[in-house]
Amino acid sequence: MHEIPVTPGRPLVCQLRDDPGQRYRLYHPLTPPRGLLVSVHGISRNAREHLKLFRPWAEHLGLVLVAPLFDRRRCQDYQRLGRTGRGLRADRLLQAIVAEVAERCRLSDDHFHLFGYSGGGQFAHRFAMAHPDQVNTLAVGAAGWYTFPDPAVRYPRGLAPCRRLPDLRLEPERFLRIPTLVAVGSDDDRPDPELNLHPRIVRQQGGSRLERGRRWIAAMVEAARRQGLATPYRFEVIPGVGHDFRQCMERGMAPLVAEFIEQHLTPSLPETTALAANA
Predict the structure, then answer these.
(1) Which of 23, 131, 127 has its CA nearest to residue 71?
(2) Rounded to an integer, what distance in angstroms lies between the CA atom of residue 111 and that of residue 64?
(3) Which of 93, 198, 210, 221 is the most buried (most CB within 10 A)?
């Protein structure tokens, strides 16, 4: 298979070398990259839109940007990482994508900043829990529901082992060290047809994405405190918007995520906020 060269400033649609059925979108900034940002779609599979809306911010931060596409047929359970019998392991696919991109873009390692919206937010925080050593920062946009740091509850609601992911080990002392942001629209405060309303989920997490995000961050803060950790956790509300990715991004989520990542980049970027001021 002929591989298109990576050209700074030019978005690409790529196929994974070892699995051509796995696609991802890639953008290399015009300046030498300082790292990698991965942005994961929800059930609409709008990877192209993720790349388009994050491109200016990836350019500003000097990050290579990757938007994987988890196909409906191959990865129907990607939000929960891909349990046995429900498609491919999406976490392993992302690891393969990141390793390939690190090689193609000559990045120093396979660590990255991770963002996901809605179903992608479900995937993102579970990936971070499963593979904390790869994730520099985690940002979750309006996830439908969460894996809580509760060792007495079976995955995916909690940390106890799951027979459909027998090799999965979720270790709080490791994943609770990841700086984490959750952002939800102010009007994402009621159930909708796509929200998981199983009674066990509602009892544990609440009845809306807004409430669930608040509860999860509070639970993570408490769990980190019990480990003696002062990890940065933030919960932010995007005013005047419901469950709409583009509207959330255009009304404040994109600069919020970029600012959060920038706080944890080393060395610090020059003090320039021109892009944020014009957003």
Answers:
(1) 23
(2) 12
(3) 93
What is the distance, to the nearest Å, from the Cα of residue 91 to the centroid of all Cα atoms in its chain? 11
**How far, in Å, CA of 124 to CA of 121, rounded?**
5
* Residue tagged 């993102």 (tokens): 124
pTM for this prediction = 0.94
Quick: pLDDT tens for 85-144.
999 999 999 999 999 999 999 999 999 999 999 999 999 999 999 999 999 999 999 999
Q: In the chain, what are the domain boundaries?
A: 12-278
Angle at alpha carbon of residue 147, lines to 246 and 158, rounded to 5°:
170
Alpha-carbon distance of 101 to 24, in angstroms, equals: 10
Count of residues making up the chain: 279
Q: Under a CB-based contact definition with an 8 Å cutoff, are residues 17 and 3 in contact?
A: yes
Q: Are 12 and 97 in contact (CB under 8 A)?
A: no
Instruction: Give DSSP secondary structure letters for 52-76.
Output: HHHHHHHHHHTEEEEEEE--TTT-T
Query: Distance (Å, rounded) from C-alpha 7 to C-alpha 84?
Result: 38
* Residue 250 DSSP label: I
Q: Are 196 and 146 contacting, i.e. CB atoms less than 8 angstroms apart?
A: no
CATH number of 12-278: 3.40.50.1820
Q: Return the half-sphere exposure (C-beta side, CA atoms, 13 A cut-off) of residue 36.
A: 26
